[in-house]
Every structure is written in structure tokens, then in C-alpha cells.
From TrEMBL:
Cofactor(s) the record lists: Zn(2+)
Family: Belongs to the helicase family. PriA subfamily.
Source organism of the structure: Roseimicrobium gellanilyticum
Subunit-structure text: Component of the replication restart primosome.
Protein name: Replication restart protein PriA
Region ranges (Disordered): 1-20
Record's cofactor remark: Binds 2 zinc ions per subunit.
Positions bound to Zn(2+) 2: 486, 489, 504, 507
């Protein structure tokens, strides 16, 4: 095994097998090779002359298959086929334009090869369900135009005979002679019948128009102008402009700027330049919670183009997602903002791709295809011939090492735009706090309590962060010590007081808390631990005068509830915001001067080599929410492990110090970014079958394995049981990912597994859980 110190993460541009680059074999191809969506078969069909102008690479088409119509995607255009004499013609196209632009089809093939996922499944992931199943399900409305108003005498006669007709005519006239049927029906329920009569009289005309389901239709955005850049911002922006002029000569840019250094302003001004060149831009954000504020900033800055900004994320309704996707597809959008899956937006003429908070693990898809949107952004930018910006205050160690090695270009901003210093961070040793309390338990330390009180008295705002939901995190027997565990998952069930239920946060099972121990029958049961629900109850008791809200997945169920809550907080109608990682990053609230981290040890104690990195990133990000206005910020980190390097380096906002010691350990123990990983998992209702399957796979992988392969032992997963299935895993590591993936593919192709056993693989795994 080589101990090379160069970074291998991610090896995104190695040659791929399978022909990722698709080319026309002539200007007028006669045959289309299609991938049938329901069967994954690749078949050849003749392109009928009448459809020649509509069949393109990436088109979805109807094809005859075994006496019925099937939906397929054109993946190659040919002049000839070995079956030329027996080919049937394509029946029809779905739409007139390819649903997968050529570069997206190239990206799909790259993704399929790199992450070892069937192309059929990749293409299915790329299209939202609403587009895939209902491609033409647009809403429509009737557009009503006034042709003429009756003269005065006729109008008076009509007013006596049919007053509703006059009322509708006058309403249309007041709207400038134009209206829609839906608007008229809001005022007059019988408008449909009346309009029918007015059309017959020749007084109005009626035509059908498409109605866009705009998720921000009722929002008002105040226009904003570009801000004056600081010296650091100007230097970074100048380099971005150079990359826009010469994208072929520019590696991916890692904009490493402390919280509040003005990364978003650089994004906005860079996109402004892209739009001037009549090109489009794609912006990825990691969390739904960041999307409302990002959209507000972009629609305010580009107010004259706000109708040409499209949004793609999971909190949209199916109809909204359908219409936003078609807005992009029909080239009516210049800017696309969205979460992970927005990397597949069918944008063309892309001039810039931005990945904000590039370090975030939520960019990694946790089910097939297990892609990483940040890495796909780098690949897509290469295919589109445009620059890509990766931005973060706490870069991933993979991206940082890529910058150090020269694969990426590092652009740093070390100062906040307002010239203010970063917040003062204080560590609170909860071991000492525990001794001061009567029951040895405290959610809010005395130091943090006094700090919150001081903010309330001064009219300033506070954020309290706890990355765990629920009221209590465990229910245990005081006699035998057994904890109430989900019967289908190997995790303790969390008590939610609002529901009076124990809930499993893995599978969602709910049940009433038992009155006695289910193991020994003793009634002495004790609740332990705390989540955001209990933290909220405690803080309401301690600060009864405070206006507060809780932000987690339990409370943010209603559509737009998160957006509305954050808006209330921004307008200073709330004093305290309690929440999980939904509020930990990217948000900008100038009146927040205090951040409290109620338990900094949660992520640190996970059995994952990335635990320290994630803890450092989370603490630094949440601390960065404080002091972004005129007043100095202050942060209290409550912890039982105050001497942990991740906590100490975050206290001083010392990314370089943390990265140096963490990278040294990663290199010593052969972990990313110095090696690639593939995490193989097996699961099934029978533990023996799942374990044996993985052991058999491991033994076969050892034969003819790549020389740089490091293979661990098959073992139970940290989450040993979930959804009623026992889980085992095997970690593979290698310097070069392609030979490893090809070897794995070959071994899997020659294996069958017992019924009920599911084997998965995750290339460049981000979690070992």
C-alpha cells in the first residue's frame, strides 16, 4: 500500500468506461438508441421523418414495446444498427425539446459509472416525480379582454336587465381592459356564465392561458443595489471575473471566508456579470432553511428579473415543482436556486455554478444514486465550460486539501465586511455546572442564563442551538438499567411531550410510554437527556417574558412555516430562537448578539472518523450567527469535553490549526482526503444471512483486488438494526477509485444473495453510520 500524501479526493476527471461523451454520428441520424425507463433495456428504433426535428439526445419518447407503448430516453443517435431491417419507428415524443440537455445526459453517464448506479435510476432521479409522471399537467385560466363598452343608453338598459354583466364589464375596464376568469370569480361566483353571455354579445373575448404556480407569487421584494466591496472581497471578485473571462484556464475556486465576510455579495455580483453575458447561473444551498433568505436576496438584487429566478427544493408542492422545472426547461429562467437535486436543473448556456456551504454533508444523497452534489457541480462545470465557486467558512477537508495540492484555487477572506471582530467564544464546563445543581442536571448554565437575560433587557436577540429533537432522549429503568429501545431499530426511543409518545427517530414508530419496565416489571422508570422540546419548556419557564420560537422538523410541518418564523425573527418580533441545525448556518440576523450551544458533544461522540470535523464545522457556523450587526457578538458553548481539539480550535475560530492536526491523523490512518472510500452494507431480517452475505462478498473482493486496496473486516453497523433489519458493513479504501469501482462491479455481477438480503454500496461515503 502506497503512503502517498497527495490528495485523491475527489478524482472526478479520470477517463470513464461506457462512452460518457455522446456524439452524433452524422448530421441526420436515422436511428435512436433508447433506454426504456421501466425495464432498463437499450433498444434501437427508427426515427420517423415527421419526428426528425423533435427527436434529440435526451428526448423522452413513446416507443412500441410488446404490444404496448413504453416511455424511453434517447441516449444515442446512430446512422446504422445491427438490427436495421427489423426496427420499428418511434411512436411520438414527449414535448418538442429534450428533457435531458446533452450535457446533463453526459453528467448522467458519468454519475452512473462513478457511483456504480444503473443509468435508468440516475435518469429517474434527475426528473422530479411531478415532471416524470405528469409532464404536461399545467394549470390554465381564461384571459378576458374587453372589446367594447356599450354606449351610455345601452349601459343603463343593461344595468336594469342584467346588473351583474355591467359589474363585470366595469371591473374589466377598471383593470385596464384585461382580466382573468379566476380573478373575476373571486368577486362574482357566477362570472363563468356571465362571461359566456358577454362573449356571445361580442363585448369581450376569452382565451385560455397557462397559469404558473409560483411559490413566491404573493411575496414582495424590495430592490437592492450592489454593495461596495471591501479590499478582500475586491481581490476575490477580481479573480472570479478572470475565471468568467477564461473558464478553461480556471480550476474550481474555493472561497474560504469567515462568517460575515461577504461571500454572498460576491456571488450576487458575479451572477450579475454572468447575466450581462446572456448566460445562466446555478446556485446550490444545503438546507431548506437557507432557501427563503437566499431567494429574498437574489430576487431583491435582480428585481427586474425576479420572474426569471427558479427555485427547486423539497418543500415545494408537486405542482410548484412541476412548473418551476418547466420554467427552466423552457428557458424562462436565468438563475436557479435550490438544494442538492437542483444540480440536475435542465439549464442551458450555464455561465457559473455556485455551491454555498460546500462542506455540508446534506449535499450527499443517502440513497441510490448516492451522489455528492458538490462533486457533481465540479464535474458539470467542467462539462459546461464554466467556472465553479465552492464557498464556506469551514471548508471540507477534501476541498481544503484539493486547494492545498493545486487542484482547486484557494481564495481567502479573513475579515468581516463591517470590520467587526468575530464573536467572543466562551467554553462552559458542564461537569462543574453539574456539581452546582441539586439534581446534577442542567439545560442552561448560570453563565448562559445571565447572558440571555442581559440580551432581553437590552432588546437584543439570542439563538440557542441543540441538534436533538424531542423532550427526553431516553426512558430507563432505575432498577435494571434497561432503556426503552425501538423494537425495529437499535436506538433508544425519544419522548415527545406534545404527543405524550415515545418516538423512534429512525423508523418513526410511536407508542405510549410504559408504566413499568418491560424487562423486569419494576415501575421505577426515569427519563433522561433532553432535546429541543424540553429546552423550549425550560427556557419559557426561566424567561416567561420572552417571545420565543422553536425550529426543528417537529414544529416546521406546515408549508412556509419556516419562512414565516425566520421572517418574524428577522423583524425582531421574537427574542429567542431555539433550534436544530436548521438555524445553525448561513442565516443573517443583525440583531443577534448571543448564541448558546446547549450540548456541543452530540456530534463529537458519534463512531465516525468525521465526528471531530463535523463538530468543529457546526460550532464555528452556529457561532457565526452572532455579532453580524453593529454590536459585538458572544457565544457560549456548553460541553462535558472542554479540552477536545474540535471544541478548542472552534473557540479560537482556528480552521488552519484544526485542519493541520486532523489531516495529519487522516493521513496516518489512511482516510479521506488521502484515500477514497466505498462503504458496502448488507441488511436483512435474518442477521445470519446478512452477515454471511457480506463475509462472502469480502472474500471474493480480496481475489484479484487492486494493489492499493485496504479492506476492513465485515462488522455490525454502528446502527446495528433499523426498520426491522439487521445491518452490517464493510469499508474499502483505495487511492484510485476507478479500479476499485470496476473491481466491485465485476464481483457483484457474479454474485447472488439470499432472498431478503439487500446489499448497498456508497462511493466516497460521507458517513459510517
Amino acid at each position: 500500500m502506497s503512503s502517498s500524501t497527495k490528495s485523491t479526493q475527489p478524482s472526478l476527471f479520470e477517463p470513464q468506461d461506457g462512452g460518457a461523451v455522446l456524439e452524433r454520428e452524422s448530421d441526420q441520424p436515422r436511428i435512436a438508441r433508447v433506454l426504456v425507463e421501466e425495464t432498463a433495456l437499450e433498444l434501437d428504433y427508427i426515427i420517423p421523418e415527421e419526428l426528425a426535428h423533435r427527436v434529440h439526445l435526451g428526448s423522452r419518447v413513446h416507443v412500441p414495446l410488446q404490444g404496448r407503448r413504453a416511455i424511453a430516453v434517447v441516449v444515442q443517435l446512430l446512422n446504422d444498427s445491427p438490427h436495421a431491417g427489423r426496427l420499428r419507428p418511434i411512436a411520438d415524443t414527449i414535448g418538442t425539446k429534450a428533457m435531458f440537455p446533452e450535457n446533463l445526459l453526459k453528467l448522467a453517464k458519468w454519475l452512473s459509472a462513478y457511483y456504480l448506479c444503473p443509468l435508468r435510476q440516475v435518469l429517474r432521479t434527475m426528473l422530479p416525480e411531478a415532471v416524470r409522471s405528469r409532464p404536461e399537467s399545467f394549470l390554465s385560466d381564461s384571459h378576458i379582454s374587453l372589446v367594447k363598452m356599450p354606449d351610455t343608453d345601452e349601459l343603463e338598459k343593461l344595468r336594469k336587465a342584467a346588473p351583474i354583466q355591467v359589474r363585470i364589464l366595469e371591473t374589466i375596464q377598471a383593470n385596464g381592459g384585461e382580466s382573468t376568469l379566476s380573478m373575476l370569480r373571486k368577486e362574482l361566483p357566477r362570472a363563468t356564465q356571465v362571461i359566456h353571455v358577454l362573449v356571445k354579445k361580442g363585448l369581450v373575448t376569452r382565451s385560455e392561458v397557462r397559469v404558473e404556480r409560483d411559490p413566491f407569487q404573493e411575496e414582495e421584494f424590495m430592490p437592492s443595489a450592489p454593495l461596495t466591496l471591501t479590499e478582500e472581497q475586491s481581490a476575490v471578485y477580481a479573480r472570479v471575473l478572470q475565471a468568467l473571462e477564461r473558464p478553461a484556464d480556471s480550476p474550481p475556486m474555493l472561497v474560504f471566508g469567515v462568517t460575515g465576510s461577504g461571500k454572498t455579495e460576491i456571488y450576487l455580483q458575479a451572477i450579475g456579470r454572468v447575466l450581462e453575458k446572456n448566460k445562466t447561473a446555478l446556485v446550490l444551498v444545503p438546507e431548506i432553511s437557507l432557501t427563503p433568505q437566499t431567494i429574498e436576496r437574489f430576487k431583491s438584487r435582480f428585481s427586474e428579473r425576479k420572474q426569471r429566478i427558479a427555485v427547486l427544493h423539497s418543500h415545494l408542492s408537486e405542482g410548484e415543482r412541476h412548473d418551476e422545472w418547466f420554467k427552466i426547461h423552457e428557458e424562462r429562467a436565468d438563475i436557479v436556486i435550490g438544494a442538492r437535486s437542483a444540480i440536475f436543473a435542465p439549464l442551458e448556456n450555464v455561465g457559473l455554478i455556485i455551491v454555498d456551504e460546500e462542506h455540508e454533508p446534506s449535499y450527499k444523497q443517502d440513497e441510490n444514486p448516492r451522489y455528492h452534489a458538490r462533486d457533481l457541480a465540479v464535474v458539470r462545470a467542467k462539462m459546461e465550460g464554466c467556472p465553479v465557486i465552492l464557498g464556506s467558512a469551514t471548508p471540507s477537508l477534501e476541498s481544503f486539501e484539493n486547494a492545498k495540492s493545486g487542484k482547486y484555487e484557494l481564495l481567502r477572506m479573513n475579515k468581516r465586511t463591517d470590520g467587526k471582530s468575530l464573536p467572543l467564544i466562551r467554553i462552559v464546563d458542564m461537569r462543574l455546572e453539574k456539581r452546582r445543581t441539586k439534581d446534577g442536571f442542567s439545560i442552561l448554565s448560570e453563565k448562559l442564563r445571565l447572558a440571555v437575560q442581559a440580551r432581553l433587557e437590552r432588546g437584543e436577540q439570542s439563538i440557542l442551538f441543540l441538534n436533538r429533537r424531542g423532550f427526553n432522549t431516553a426512558l430507563s429503568c432505575m432498577k435494571c438499567g434497561v432503556t426503552c429501545v425501538c423494537p425495529d431499530c437499535s436506538v433508544a426511543m425519544t419522548f415527545h411531550k406534545s404527543d405524550t409518545k415515545l418516538i423512534c427517530h429512525v423508523c418513526g414508530m410511536r407508542k405510549l410510554p410504559p408504566r413499568k419496565c418491560e424487562s423486569c416489571g419494576d415501575p421505577s422508570l426515569s427519563f433522561a437527556g433532553f432535546g429541543t422540546e424540553r429546552a423550549e419548556e425550560t427556557i419559557r419557564k426561566v424567561f416567561p417574558q420572552a417571545r420565543l420560537a422553536r425550529v426543528d422538523t417537529d414544529t416546521m410541518q406546515r408549508k412556509n412555516q419556516l419562512r414565516d418564523t425566520l421572517r418574524l425573527f428577522r423583524s425582531q418580533k421574537l427574542d429567542i430562537l431555539i433550534g436544530t441545525q436548521m438555524i445553525a448556518k448561513g442565516l443573517d440576523f443583525p440583531n443577534v448578539t448571543l448564541v448558546g450551544v446547549l450540548n456541543a458533544d452530540l456530534a463529537l461522540n458519534l463512531p465516525d472518523y468525521r465526528a471531530a470535523e463535523r463538530t468543529f464545522q457546526l460550532l464555528t457556523q452556529v457561532a457565526g450567527r452572532a455579532g453580524r450587526g453593529e454590536r459585538q457578538g458572544e457565544v457560549f458553548i456548553q460541553t462535558y469535553t472542554p479540552h477536545s481539539p474540535a471544541i478548542q480550535f472552534s473557540r479560537h475560530t482556528d480552521f488552519d490549526g484544526f485542519a493541520e492536526q486532523e489531516l495529519e491523523q487522516r493521513q496516518q490512518w489512511h482516510y479521506p482526503p488521502y484515500l477514497h472510500t466505498v462503504l458496502i452494507g448488507s441488511r436483512g431480517k435474518e442477521a445470519a444471512h446478512a452477515e454471511f452475505s457480506l463475509q462472502t462478498l469480502a472474500s471474493r473482493l480480496q481475489k484479484e483486488a487492486p494493489p492499493d486496496l485496504i479492506m476492513g473486516e465485515p462488522c455490525p453497523s454502528p446502527l446495528a438494526k433499523a426498520h426491522g433489519q439487521f445491518r452490517f458493513q464493510l469499508l474499502l479504501r483505495a487511492e484510485k477509485i476507478r479500479p476499485l469501482v470496476m473491481h466491485l462491479q465485476k464481483v457483484l455481477a457474479g454474485m447472488t444473495f439470499p432472498e431478503g438480503v439487500i446489499v448497498t454500496w456508497d462511493v466516497d461515503a460521507m458517513s459510517l453510520m
